[in-house]
Amino acid sequence: MSLSDSTAVLEQDTGSDQTTASSLRQAEPAAVEGVSYSVSPGFVATLARLNLSVAISSYQSGKFYLLGRNPAGGLMVDERLFHKAMGIAVEGNALILATLFQIHRFENVLEEGQFINHTFDACYVPRISFTTGVLDAHDVGLTAEGEVVFVNTRFNCLASLARARSFTPIWKPPFISHIVDEDRCHLNGMAMQEGRPAYVTAVSRSNTIDGWRDRRTGGGVVIDVATGDIVCEGLSMPHSPRLHQGRLWILNSGAGELGWVDRDSRTFHPVAFCPGFLRGLAFAGRYALVGLSKPRYERFEGLPLDRKLKDANSEPWCGLQVIDLDTGTCIDWFRIDGAVAEIYDVAALPGVACPMSLGFASNEIQTLITHEELKSGD
């Protein structure tokens, strides 16, 4: 499925950037002990038809995946290690990834027409890393000014990065009394609109430490950031609010439901049931890319998902489903079995066929060197 001990060769049609690389090694996901991957027969063809690849984070295992199609027509799985990989945001050539105590900004260092190893048409390199400390950062985004904004779950707020501090709080729910180091409502998801946070999700409106855990079944809310109004309530552990084609979509995670919120009537309309605890949502036209996790039953017993799985005579699984929004059916899937059991976020990489990334767990990041041409007169 991927390359091993291969020499990086840059092929370039046009462009002025210079790239030097040697001994780029690609992880072999299938060789990871205790983990196996499978896909539906049409998954790779769907990626090609939609002209995209997919980024997936798995915080429980520290995995950051890029799913693409290799030149031979099969699936390419690029796997990197980032401790507690969480929220992902993609804007142009930039990719933001929240991790345990840092937020990384990656840049795709390849120009159009360039390839690494005759295979990869995008290479995401972490160029800037912000050290925040452990904030339990969840969803991330980029503002219109190119600044990183993120959900600071530990402090119940939205935050931006600061030069001399761990973070700068920029918004909190009206029911949270003050910025405090107590995960009270489990603020988790954030929908961006025109470069600004527009909506957030929280497991409850609790204003006491860890109060959200007693409200997991029906205490979930969606909040309008601009007004502070609750635009939907009665949800079970909602995550991943996203705006797409004029609708506000969310994952009603504790019920395994993908649906949208009618902001006028403040009601949730489920469109599809997926057999898992849902987190991570991206879109491509009429299709939704939904992340599924196996629920942690020692902490999350009694959710509506339990009953729905029993009614469907189904077991929960971990991976990605492609949902047709017109019919509410799953048309394709990517599944992970074994030691990796939880997904946090999913992002689409439009126009990219076969991406790779670099991490800090090997020496690859030392050997890929890029620079611009010397400007005339310098």
Describe the structure in your own words.
It contains three helices and 30 strands. By secondary structure, it is mainly beta. The strands form eight sheets. It has a five-stranded antiparallel β-sheet with strand order 3-27-26-25-24, covered by helices on one side. Strands 7-8-9-11-29 form a five-stranded mixed β-sheet, with no helix packed on it. The protein has a four-stranded antiparallel β-sheet with strand order 6-5-4-28, covered by helices on one side. The chain is globular, with a radius of gyration of 20 Å. The N terminus is likely disordered.
Give the arrangement of secondary structure elements.
Elements: E1 10-11, E2 18-20, E3 35-39, H1 43-50, E4 52-58, E5 63-69, E6 75-81, E7 88-91, E8 94-98, E9 102-108, E10 115-116, E11 122-131, E12 137-142, E13 148-152, E14 157-160, E15 168-171, E16 187-193, E17 196-202, E18 220-224, E19 230-235, E20 238-244, E21 247-252, E22 257-262, E23 267-273, E24 277-284, E25 287-293, H2 304-311, E26 318-324, E27 329-338, E28 345-350, E29 355-357, H3 364-367, E30 369-371
Parallel strand pairs: 11-29
Antiparallel strand pairs: 1-10, 2-30, 3-27, 4-5, 4-28, 5-6, 7-8, 8-9, 9-11, 12-13, 13-14, 14-15, 16-17, 17-18, 18-19, 20-21, 21-22, 22-23, 24-25, 25-26, 26-27
